[in-house]
Amino acid sequence: MLMAQNAPPERKVVGNVVTSERNPAVRMELPKAAQYVGADRWVLYGIADCELHAFIEADAQKNVQRLYWVQFEDYLPSRPDLHHTYDSPKHATIGGMDFYVDTWVRTKDATIESGSDREHIEALVRAKGYRMPEAMMYVRLVHLLDKEKRKELMIIYGDDLAPTGFTAAELNEGGKAHDRWPGIADALLEGAQRRITIEPGKTVN
Could you give the angle at the alpha carbon of 126 between the alpha carbons of 190 and 136, nearest 5°? Predict the structure, then answer.
């Protein structure tokens, strides 16, 4: 069952607001400065209906400063054996919803797995003429919809790393500034919570 292969995105985007009527029913508002660069929907790795929406904040030269990556994912009925297995001990609550929290640093030239959601979102960004910075720091927020753990809402917020004054190598494990990363990561999460507003929406069957 590859229903999502050529299906259009279900969620509606008007300006800086994403509205989802199911899985889950939410209204998500991003900063007015966030520019919508498009959506994609496909079957991720042949196992999940994946729909993502991309927003960016950029300078006048189209250099990306912030990335907002909103993704809705649902394992296909043909794979009843699959369940999400997030285990991060860190959690955050946004709009009354519980999210697993993970943070990391990534360089622009890091390997991108073929067919991945990362490949899809960066293609959307490039197609609009925007350029990713040398390195970004990311916080991933994942909300699992029910105890079956087969459906998720994932939000990834990324910030240009340059203003921190550190490189990815310095902040990563083994780097000379790795001890600074927890504080930077906490500030990154706070920034995401400040910029992203989530409210329960109306469910439509």
Answer: 30
CA distance 153 to 110: 25
**Verdict on whether the full-model pTM lies above 0.85:** yes
The per-residue pLDDT for range 170-182, each reduced to its tens digit, is 999 999 999 999 9
* Per-residue model confidence as pLDDT tens digits over 145-189: 999 999 999 999 999 999 999 999 999 999 999 999 999 999 999
Q: Which amino acid, 128?
A: K
**Residue 51 to residue 163: CA distance in whole angstroms:** 31
Strands 97-107 and 91-94: antiparallel
